[in-house]
Design a protein that fits this description.
heterodimer, A: alpha+beta, five-stranded antiparallel beta sheet, three-stranded antiparallel beta sheet, 12 strands, B: alpha/beta, eight-stranded mixed beta sheet, 10 strands, about 40% helix, globular
Amino acid sequence: MIKDILSYIRKNGRILGLSSEENLTFIQLMLSRGKKYEKGRVVYAIFGETSPVPILYAKVSRDPSSDSSLESEYACLLRLRALSDPMIDDSTPAPLQLVTVADRLVLFESPLPGSSVVRLLSRPIELAPRIEDFTEAIIKLTGEWLSHFQRVTACGTETIGEHFITSRVKPILDRYLHYVGRSETSEKMCSILLSRLQTFGGTTLRMVMTNGNLAPHTILVDNQPSRLGLPDWKFCDTTSLVLREHYCFAQYMFYEWSSRGLLGPGDVEKHWTQTFINADNFLGEGLSDFIQKTNRSLGIAKELEDVMFPLFMINELNVQMEFSQFVPDPRMMTEHRLLDSWMRNASYKC
Amino acid sequence: MLCSDCGTCYPIVEGVPDFGAGGEYYGEMPQETMKALLAEIPQIGWKEAVYKYLCARSPWAYQIVMDETRADWQFLLSLGRNHSVLDVGSGWGTISVPLSRRCGHVVAMDSTLERCQFLKLRCIEDDVYNVLPVRANILESPLCENQFDLVVFNGSLEWIGESNLTGSPRSLQLEALKSAQKLCREDGFLYIGIENSYGSKYLLGFPDDHAGIKGISFLPRGEADELSALTRGKPYRTYTYSHEEYRNMVEEAGFCDIEFYYPLPDYKSATYIASLEGDYRIPLEFLLTHLYDPYVLSTSHWHGQMGLEFWRTVGQLERVAAKLQVLHCFAASFSIIARKR
């Protein structure tokens, strides 16, 4: 497959924005790992003879039945380019071409500079900045980018009401009940969340574009960090129920920081309580402010946030459940306990 | 089952053609446990059964069974529905099943009957109809020559010496490759996923993946034998080689156009694959500077045997080796692709 792709690039260099014919080399990246294999992609970073960084990226779905995700990513990137916004252009890949090569759909994109946030976390101690400073800088950079992104991609509003609940919220709760089973506890929790949400009937939420997988391992930054890039847009969507964005970033940042021992001694549940319930560690302080600011700009009041966050966690459990093809795994079990913990501590205790 | 060529009759054991591979049961769990796992698959499904019997016992083996990215090297090749593949040492089917999504037909060969039976049940459950598990030994292949477009040895060539204790491991490995060459069609391909005996991680003290002994892969074979006998009471027969030695062996077996790739961190759980042909300095320096993450390795099931500092050192050494264009000598393992001569 890669030889066909390289040969295509050589023949069509101009269409792809390459100035001269070069000897091309590549790295095959298999980043979307895991058990739900067939939904993932293989990504090729293409190198020329002189530049020390890739000159192009090519994405191929592992299974042709998932080619529609390449089409939707291409459409999303075209929409983002159409905004003609320098900050968005700087942080997202330019969609160069979606084309069939050797009977397979290939998406060509421009490269983005930087290393992933988690890669920078692994720097030797002598090269790394103070973790509190790095944390603050990453949250600030992401917060500024997200705020700008949501402002420029805003496209109307949606009011919380019967339609919103039926089309956006109920499917998440139904999937959850289907996966975990309809126990008294799970049904009670879903019913509490639904009735709480109904009390916000008439509230207007902003409709915005979402990346759909905002997390430290999906964000590229420079060493400062002062510049952010998001190379993966396969989960891009336009919605008023923004879950896998600021909440996702916060939750996955927590996992990375906690697993690397950056939150001090203690287990994951203790750290999570400190971060998301008490906000009494450096990560929690930063994330709490980041989440509240993002929610405010989306039209989500503090009280509504107390419903949105567990809804995100339930949706995340659904994602985990589907990802693991319904075989339990340790992450899922932890997330279940964290959800219980939130519900026990929420103002509307379960 | 009757061979139309020679007239020999072979039994079919629970749906698996049994060509009498000989040798002992091989697996990540005792034979009785494997049988119990097989017995439960019809009730709870293969994924749940593997989780139940393997996850706690061996998280690394569980990952190998469940994570199909292990087969992502296939995208180095142009494969399609008109291609047929032989997967030698197919084990749990982690290579055969992903290959079946792109290819016309996959013959999954393993010398352990229970593994073939597992794959049979897995395929039935997942509606995979173009994988045929067979119990056979590549050294006594019952299959017709010139029929496969690709023959795969992913983590199996090094074990050939263990499947037959007579003869030197190298000559048995060469014999297996020659057999693969005969089974290949004209212009058919060979794929090998295997460790580099001089991989920098082994030179720095990571235990050999097969014998579990530090420093054994690059010792003179006689000394390796003595060390193995002293440490675990059996000879060392899971031979791995250097870049040059593999090239010579594959050539000797009748293949040409040999290409080496570096699967990182190794061919068993590669997240990245880069070519080791031509001038590879730019892509590999980029890979080892911007993508290689020592923390991920130090916390993964298999590589977690060594700590963060170890993987940092390995990464730094490999970056220097890439810059000097000698990484092909020290890569931890190889993906090797060659064409039938």
